[in-house]
């Protein structure tokens, strides 16, 4: 009985199209390579940063919005960039969703303290950061967030990426995210799965010529 009520609700939802942008879409992500996109973003110099973490489209819908992603990022120790210390240039990516090249929605940096000063400090000493791209064009509407994660040198080195900084940045972010976290009254349970075959191992086309291991970690983030 419950199953059939649920089935009719699904049918109703499909028939009326009342699904909002906050309803689940039903797929982890689509491979950008399959539709003219790339797992490297465009850093503007002919090279790109690897999109080495995906927040799955099967995550809680509220996580997959800009505000939701920021709150989740805060729960694992990241902040919005400190005013006046936005040193990294804006980048763009083509996620194969029919939208072509779109700008990052936001750039987040690791928060070294409890106040906004934490992020300012991070901009000076270096640390982990990431850019977020949303796969929500009509040709591949997973709602997944693609992250270009890296670990940087400090500001005196003009925010360049440390050797092996893409793989290290990914692993650090994933370690901080997996399990239970919370921020602003929202609690998250996050699981991780490594995927190969999306991102080519090596340094071809990769910004700063830094080789990557080709692993993309897919996080599924569920609000408890
Ligand atoms: C994307 O970013 C570039 C560089 O910051 C900017 O010139 C351009 O207007 C942006 N495009 C959109 C659609 O916001
Ligand atoms: C797609 O994502 C962008 C960036 O977060 C957002 O501004 C836009 O509203 C989203 N579009 C849809 C249809 O969800
Ligand atoms: C992709 O295109 C769709 C449809 O035009 C639009 O609603 C959405 O906001 C775009 N996504 C991004 C990230 O710009
Ligand atoms: C993913 O791969 C990285 C690098 O090899 C490894 O450190 C990590 O434990 C792996 N994570 C999972 C969930 O398999």
From TrEMBL:
The keyword Signal applies. Keywords: Signal. Residues 1-19 form the signal peptide. This is Secreted protein.
